[in-house]
Design goal:
Blueprint: E1 2-7, H1 25-32, E2 38-43, E3 58-62, H2 68-80, E4 84-88, H3 90-94, H4 96-100, E5 105-108, H5 115-124, E6 131-133, E7 154-155, E8 158-163, E9 166-167, H6 178-182, E10 187-188, H7 191-200, E11 205-208, H8 217-227, E12 233-237, H9 246-254, E13 257-265, H10 269-275, H11 282-294, E14 298-305, H12 313-325, E15 329-334, H13 342-349, H14 375-389, H15 392-397, H16 400-403, H17 407-427
Parallel strand pairs: 1-2, 1-3, 3-4, 4-5, 5-6, 8-11, 11-12, 12-13, 13-14, 14-15
Antiparallel strand pairs: 7-8, 9-10
Helix pairs in contact: 7-8, 8-9, 11-12, 12-14
Length: about 450
């Protein structure tokens, strides 16, 4: 069969020349595909154009919540042409019945252990089932290698390759989909395979997509040690707990780590207590960021606004933390009730979700009514802290520690901040999103994209 794998993207989110992390999923699906099939990948976020009139036998579409409506539009066009469509991805796994309205089958969760091959066999035999799901999460000790030659391994001016070493997250945050679909027990790929994968990448910069690459100390130390001879630079994600371990920080740097995205989530006392992902106080977290920077590692600090514990004070607390710590980069997120999470179920039950337009679920738009402030105040505070942190004055005032660390850190620092500033300027007219009166919040996607039905 000839197979097209599609990563959909909204028109205003396309960024072929901006800093963005390359996706890994479709290249992994391509790696699972037997060699007697031909695979093509279309990544709309990089400006690829979907060829609706291509001679494909099967269309695979991987969707997140914010891209699912575009994915459904793409599926409709292929269904009009008589093509078979299979959905996968986080949103399809959370809302499989919804996705099935627009396709022929839905893969729920992970696709290893022969599940994708089963889908392909059934597609060839015209016997696709509605849903495909493994009975247990796959053991990553045996796995396929992604076909990176089929995806865009670039991010703005950087050539960067995505890699995966683990799946699963033990924190089980009520707003996050990761632990719901990948489990709360972290699973590892063999270090020898990760190193072989990294060696195969011609790119000199790697991005580890894991949610917490340093959670298991023994594993992390072994991985970092084996990365050292490769002399590649890398960026990843971890918890701030790594700052307590001098050896781990030093080994991370020696292995090529130059930046870590860290989910602090909240700087309020109640937020820190609730999520237990940070150190005990704002000042302790400030010192932890400085420790990582002193060890040559840039901290990309992520904060969420609109938590039920949030009052209007969180904006000042967030700004105080970012200014004192001189975090290299600020990822500002608005609380977004992704389907499949406890937050979604709670806010839906309480009638605090303002819109069911999935395209607005990108953590940059207000789609909920927060507990302790109005939606408009939430947006105002979010807008103001982004404007302040992404201002030229803020970027320059935080830059000195990174300039002193040399050209690599300086380039990464300014690329992240200028890129964020440019994207902020484009999106600053975002508002609070509410459904019109005649559009009830009932999560019926047909009012946004009507499923194609063959009437012949």
């Amino acid at each position: 069969m000839k197979i097209l794998l599609v990563s959909p993207c909204l028109q205003n989110e396309k960024r072929p020349s901006q800093f963005a992390i390359p996706q890994l999923t479709l290249s992994m699906i391509a790696g699972m595909t037997p060699s007697d099939h031909e695979v093509e990948i279309c990544e709309e976020e990089y400006g690829d154009i979907v060829n609706f009139d291509g001679d494909y036998n099967l269309i695979g579409i991987s969707i997140m919540s914010q891209t699912c409506l575009r994915g459904y539009e793409i599926a409709n066009e292929f269904k009009k042409r008589g093509k078979k469509v299979v959905f996968g991805g986080i949103h399809a796994s959370a809302m499989p019945e919804e996705a099935l309205l627009y396709g022929d089958a839905v893969v729920i969760g992970e696709a290893e252990d022969g599940l994708w091959e089963e889908v392909l066999t059934d597609a060839e035999n015209n016997s696709l089932r509605s849903f495909y799901k493994l009975s247990k999460v796959p053991d990553l000790q045996t796995h396929v290698f992604p076909k990176r030659d089929l995806i865009k391994c670039s991010s703005g001016k950087f050539r960067i390759a995505p890699l995966e070493t683990t799946r699963g997250c033990p924190y089980n945050c009520d707003f996050c989909t990761v632990s719901r679909f990948f489990g709360t027990v972290q699973r590892h790929k063999p270090v020898r395979d990760i190193i072989a994968d990294a060696k195969s990448c011609p790119q000199e910069i790697l991005f580890f997509v894991d949610d917490n690459i340093a959670f298991r100390r023994k594993f992390a130390l072994e991985l970092f040690n084996e990365l050292i001879p490769l002399k590649k630079k890398w960026i990843g994600q971890a918890s701030i707990g790594i700052s307590r371990d001098k050896e781990l920080m030093k080994m991370a740097y020696r292995s090529g780590c130059r930046g870590l995205l860290i989910g602090f989530e909240s700087m309020s006392e109640e937020g820190i207590r609730t999520y237990r992902k940070t150190l005990k106080t704002l000042d302790e977290n400030v010192l932890a960021v400085r420790k990582l920077r002193d060890n040559g590692i840039l901290v990309m600090a992520s904060l969420i606004f609109g938590l039920d514990s949030d009052t209007e004070a969180v904006f000042d607390l967030g700004y105080e933390f970012l200014s004192k710590s001189k975090s290299a980069f600020f990822q500002a997120c608005l609380m977004t009730p992704y389907p499949g999470t406890l937050v979604f179920e709670n806010l839906k039950r309480e009638g605090r979700i303002l819109t069911d337009d999935w395209s607005k679920y990108d953590t940059k738009k207000v789609v909920i009514s927060p507990k302790n402030m109005s939606p408009e105040r939430l947006f105002q505070g979010y807008h103001e802290i982004r404007k302040a942190i992404y201002s030229y004055n803020s970027i320059l005032s935080r830059s000195l520690p990174y300039l002193l660390k040399g050209p690599v850190n300086s380039l990464l620092y300014f690329s992240l901040n200028i890129g964020a500033r440019n994207r902020y300027k484009v999106s600053r007219d975002d508002i609070v999103y509410r459904n019109p009166i005649d559009f009830p919040v009932d999560f019926n996607t047909a009012k946004y994209v009507k499923p194609y039905k063959n009437t012949l």
